[in-house]
Amino acid sequence: MTAAWQERVSLKPFNTFGIDVDARYFTQAHSDDEVRAALASAAQRQLPVLVIGGGSNLLLTQDVDALVLHMASRGRRVLSEQGERVVVEAEAGEPWHPFVQWSLEQGFSGLENLSLIPGTVGAAPMQNVGAYGVEIKDVFAGLTALDRETGELRDFTLEECAFGYRDSVFKRTPGRWLILRVRFALARTLQAHLDYGPVRQRLQEQGVEQPSAQDISDAICSIRREKLPDPLELGNAGSFFKNPVVSAALSEQIRVWYPGVVAYPQGEGQVKLAAGWLIEQAGWKGYRDGDAGVHRLQSLVLVNYGQASGAQLHALARKIQADILERFGVELEMEPNLY
Ligand code: FAD
Ligand code: NAP
User: Would you call 280 a catalytic residue per the annotation?
Assistant: First the structure.
């Protein structure tokens, strides 16, 4: 079955930066069959295909001379329950946060720290989404993807996804795998991850001593609503840079000049630096050039005040990268996917 294609469609409503570029063609896929049909028609016309979910990790720097295939498949289900362990599955187009809420309503824990992340289930494995000390790799039970080179379906295990920090085999081979559905191993009893200070502190303020998974989710949602700009009000793609992992020696060198450097040891002589802290120290917090800027509360988030182009935001990102390299000797890597 083939869903209709539209020509020259503005992608402004389909990316959280709110960048106004056009797709040459645009269609949606609600099922595996529609995915296959769209890919086959595009191949026949020798058109490249850009697959998107919620557009919350994209920086579009130009019109997209391709078919943009928006994943709109829906469905979530319990696949198996064995004592404590429950395996659930969701289709790629399921919006992430409602899926997390659904899992909590079923009494399953494991996804609570990943509450209120925008986007879709199908894109979550792309960068092994993570927040507040949990990444999807911690609860991952498998996924089914379509190999766009051969048209074959393939099930991936945890090892085969090669998840890393905001990274995966899917991110490293862009355009090869189209993720159709993802499975998660959840639990009936909560194993709370409360290492991140603000979450513990918020629960304490609320007088919650033995938090449930829903309590943790609620606390994280309230922190995120205070700290992060809502893309519906101010265009953004969340953290624009990954936190750099550097040698302990470089981290100590930085500490000589900046005793307050925010650094988390990662073992094996490696240290993760908070990119937001570096950017703030360099004076970029609240910076604005035209409609492209750095958020006034959260230096890691670049924002579009209205009419910024992707190219303007990219230019600002490159200026910040150059400045951080010069000041601290640290290379910042962009997190969103650039087109
Ligand atoms: P898109 O932006 O649509 O796509 C991202 C990439 O995945 C693109 O390369 C696209 O081609 C590809 N893709 C999309 N769907 C598929 C599919 N089904 N199969 C194959 N490839 C696909 N990220 C975090 O990790 N942690 C956070 O805490 C976090 N917080 C955020 C907060 C805000 C306010 C915002 C705006 C973003 C945040 N993000 C965070 C980034 C983003 O929400 C996640 O990376 C999310 O998983 C992206 O999902 P999406 O559906 O919007 O993907
Ligand atoms: P924060 O709490 O102000 O902390 C700043 C940075 O320090 C974070 O990036 C985090 O790294 C790191 N950190 C804090 N406590 C840590 C601990 N106990 N152990 C190891 N590292 C620690 O961060 P924030 O900006 O408000 O974000 C909160 C969480 O949401 C973070 O996990 C962040 O990654 C996630 N988030 C991600 C995005 C995105 O787009 N990717 C957007 C918003 C929020 P990590 O980032 O490695 O966790």
Answer: no
pLDDT tens, 313-333? 999 999 999 999 999 999 999
**204 and 290 share a domain?**
no
Q: Return the sign of the alpha-carbon dihedral for residues 187, 191, 194, 195.
A: negative
Same domain assignment for residues 45 and 116: no
Mean pLDDT of all residues in 280-284: 97
The rounded percent of the chain whose pLDDT value lies above 70 is 99
Same domain, 213 and 251: no
242 C-alpha to center of ligand 1: Å?
14
Secondary structure (DSSP) of 29-51: ESSHHHHHHHHHHHHHTT--EEE
Indicate if the alpha-carbon torsion angle 324, 326, 332, 338 is positive or negative: positive
* Per annotation, catalytic residue among 115, 166, 181, 217: 166
Say if residue 158's pLDDT is above 90.
Answer: yes
Number of the ligand 2 atom closest to the C-alpha atom of 196: 18
pTM: 0.97
Q: In the structure, which protein residues have their CB atom closer than 6 angstroms to any atom of ligand 2? A: 130-132, 195-196, 198, 227-228, 238-239, 243, 262, 264, 274, 276, 300, 335
Residues 81 and 220 in one domain: yes
pLDDT grade, residue 1 (50/70/90)? Answer: low
**Any idea what DSSP says for residue 117?**
-
